[in-house]
Design a protein that fits this description.
The protein is α/β, with parallel strands linked by helices. It is built from 18 helices and twelve strands. Strands 9-8-7-6-10-11-12 form a seven-stranded mixed sheet, with helices on both faces. A five-stranded mixed sheet has the order 1-2-4-3-5. Helix 10 links the parallel strand 6 and strand 7. The structure holds glutamic acid. Glutamic acid (GLU) binds next to strand 3 and helix 16.
Length: 447
C-alpha cells in the first residue's frame, strides 16, 4: 500500500511540476489515509485517489484594471473548483503577490478535508489573484475587485461555488465583489460569505476562525489533562485570524506573549490584551503590513526584526500568519524550549519535516484543516442564513461554532484511534475528512 500511495504522489508530481505547496499537502494527506485505502480496496479500484488529486475544474483569467495614475495594470485571477462530492465548492479568495496555481491548489485541496470535517454540506475550492492590496488606494481596490468579479461571476453561484475571504480579502473586498456580482447578474443571493452585517453577513463570522482555533486548542489540552487558563501562548500574525485567536485566548484566561508580521515579531511579557487587541486592528488597517509600531506604543514590549516568534518559550504555539512559517529549524528551537502543544491557525503553517520532528519529540499537534475550520463552518451557516432569508443572533452562531469545533476534535481523535494510531490529530483529521468525501464519491460513480 505504501507503494501505491507513492505512485499516487508520483502522478501528482508529474502533473503539477513546480508547485511544491500543492505537492506538500498531497503527500501529507495521502500518507495519512494509507490505512483507509488498505481497508477499502474498492477505493483503489475506482481510481478514487487519482480523481481526488485532480481539481474538477480550474479557471485562470486576466484581470485588467486602471490605477490611480491612469496606468493600465494586469493581474492574473484563479478559481480552482476542487471537489463537489459533498456540496457546492466552498473556500476563500487570496489576494497576494505570491499567488500562483501551486498556492491556490494547495489551499483548495486542504479545503476539501477541512470542509468535510465541519460536518456541513460544502465541497472544496479556492481562488485568488497575484494582486498586492498593500499600499493600494480604496478606489484601486474597488476597481480591481470589480474587474475580478467581471470574469468570476460566470463560474460561481449559491448552489455552485461560494467564495469568501482569505489573506488580502476582508470585509471591504467582499463588499465590492458582492456589489459587482449583483450588478452583473441582477440577483441578490448568498454567493459570497464574510459579507457585512448590513447585507446578509453573519454575526460572529469575523472572529469565527480565531475563536474556533482556541476552542480546538482547549479540547487538545483537555484531552491531555490540562487547561488553557494560565498558559503562555506564542501567536504569529496580526491579521483577522490572529486577532480572533488572541481575543478568545484572553477570554479563557491564557496569556498571549507574541504576535508577528512580515517585518519581525513582538514579544510582550505583559500580555497582548485589553486595548492591545484593538490596536492589532489599527495595525492591520494601516495597510503597511508591519507590526514594529506596537513596541513604540506599548512600553515593556520588544520588537525583534526579521525573526519569528518560535524562538520564544511558551506553553502553546499558535501560528496564524501563512504557510510554511514553521520550518525544521523552528521546530528544533520549539522542542529545545520544551514545546508540548502546537495548534495551527494558518493554513499549512508547518513543513512536513517539521511536523515529523515535532511528533517524534512528543509535541501534540492540532492540524490547521481541523483547528481553523471554524471560519468556513460559519461561512456555511451564513449560506444557510441567506438561503432561509433570515438573520441569526451572535449567541446562536457562537453556540454552533463551539459544538462544531468540539466535534471536529472528537472525530479526528476517534479516527486516529480507530486505525491504531493513538492520539494523532494530524492523521485523524485527514482520515475523518477523507472518509466522508470518499463515501460520497463512491456513491456518485465515476465523475
Ligand atoms: N479562507 C478561509 C479558510 O481558509 C475561509 C473560507 C470560507 O469561509 O469559505 O478556511
Amino acid at each position: 500500500m505504501a507503494n501505491l500511495v507513492q505512485q499516487y504522489i508520483e502522478i501528482a508530481k508529474k502533473r503539477n511540476p513546480g508547485e511544491p505547496e500543492f505537492l506538500q499537502t498531497v503527500e501529507e494527506v495521502l500518507t495519512s489515509i494509507e490505512p483507509v485505502l488498505e481497508a477499502h480496496p474498492e477505493y483503489v479500484e475506482s481510481g478514487l485517489v487519482e480523481r481526488l488529486i485532480e481539481p474538477e475544474r480550474g479557471i485562470s483569467f486576466r484581470v485588467p484594471w486602471v490605477d490611480d495614475n491612469g496606468k493600465v495594470q494586469v493581474n492574473r485571477g484563479y478559481r480552482y473548483e476542487f471537489n463537489s462530492a459533498i456540496g457546492p465548492y466552498k473556500g476563500g479568495l487570496r489576494f497576494a503577490p505570491n499567488v500562483y496555481p501551486g498556492i491556490i491548489k494547495f489551499l483548495g485541496f486542504e479545503q476539501i478535508f477541512k470542509n468535510s470535517l465541519t460536518g456541513l454540506p460544502i465541497g472544496g475550492g479556492k481562488g485568488g489573484a497575484d494582486f498586492d492590496p498593500n499600499g493600494k488606494s480604496d478606489a484601486e481596490i474597488m476597481r480591481f475587485c470589480q474587474s475580478f468579479m467581471t470574469e468570476l461571476y460566470r463560474h460561481i453561484g449559491p448552489h455552485t461555488d461560494v467564495p469568501a475571504g482569505d489573506l488580502g480579502v476582508g470585509a471591504r473586498e467582499i463588499g465590492y465583489l458582492f456589489g459587482q456580482y449583483k450588478r452583473l447578474t441582477n440577483r441578490y443571493e448568498g454567493v459570497l460569505t464574510g459579507k457585512g452585517l448590513a447585507y446578509g453577513g453573519l454575526a460572529g463570522r469575523t472572529e469565527a476562525t480565531g475563536y474556533g482555533i482556541v476552542f480546538f486548542a482547549r479540547e487538545m489540552l483537555k484531552h491531555c489533562g490540562e487547561e488553557l487558563k494560565g498558559k503562555t501562548v506564542a501567536v504569529s500574525g496580526f491579521g483577522n485570524v490572529a486577532w480572533g485567536t488572541v481575543q478568545k485566548l484572553n477570554q479563557l484566561g491564557a496569556k498571549v506573549i507574541t504576535i508577528s508580521g512580515p517585518d519581525g515579531y513582538i514579544y510582550d511579557p505583559n500580555g497582548v490584551s485589553g486595548e492591545k487587541e484593538a490596536y492589532m486592528l489599527e495595525l492591520r488597517s494601516s495597510g503597511k503590513n508591519i507590526c514594529a509600531p506596537y513596541a513604540d506604543k506599548f512600553p515593556g514590549s520588544e520588537f525583534h526584526a526579521g525573526k519569528k516568534p518560535w524562538e520564544v518559550k511558551a506553553d502553546l504555539y499558535i501560528p496564524c500568519a501563512t504557510q510554511n512559517e514553521i520550518r525544521i529549524e523552528d521546530a528544533k528551537a520549539m522542542v529545545a524550549n520544551g514545546c508540548k502543544y502546537l495548534c495551527e491557525g494558518a493554513n499549512m503553517p508547518t513543513t512536513n519535516d517539521a511536523i515529523e520532528y515535532l511528533k517524534e519529540n512528543g509535541v501534540v499537534i492540532g492540524p490547521s484543516k481541523a483547528a481553523n475550520a471554524g471560519g468556513v463552518a460559519c461561512s456555511c451557516i451564513e449560506m444557510g442564513q441567506n438561503a432561509g432569508h433570515t438573520v441569526f443572533s451572535p449567541e446562536q452562531v457562537y453556540e454552533q461554532l463551539e459544538t462544531i469545533m468540539v466535534n471536529i476534535h472528537k472525530h479526528s481523535a476517534e479516527a486516529s484511534e480507530k486505525y491504531g494510531l493513538g492520539y494523532d490529530l494530524v492523521a485523524g483529521a485527514n482520515i475523518a475528512g477523507f472518509e466522508k468525501v470518499a463515501e460520497a464519491m463512491m456513491a456518485q460513480g465515476i465523475v
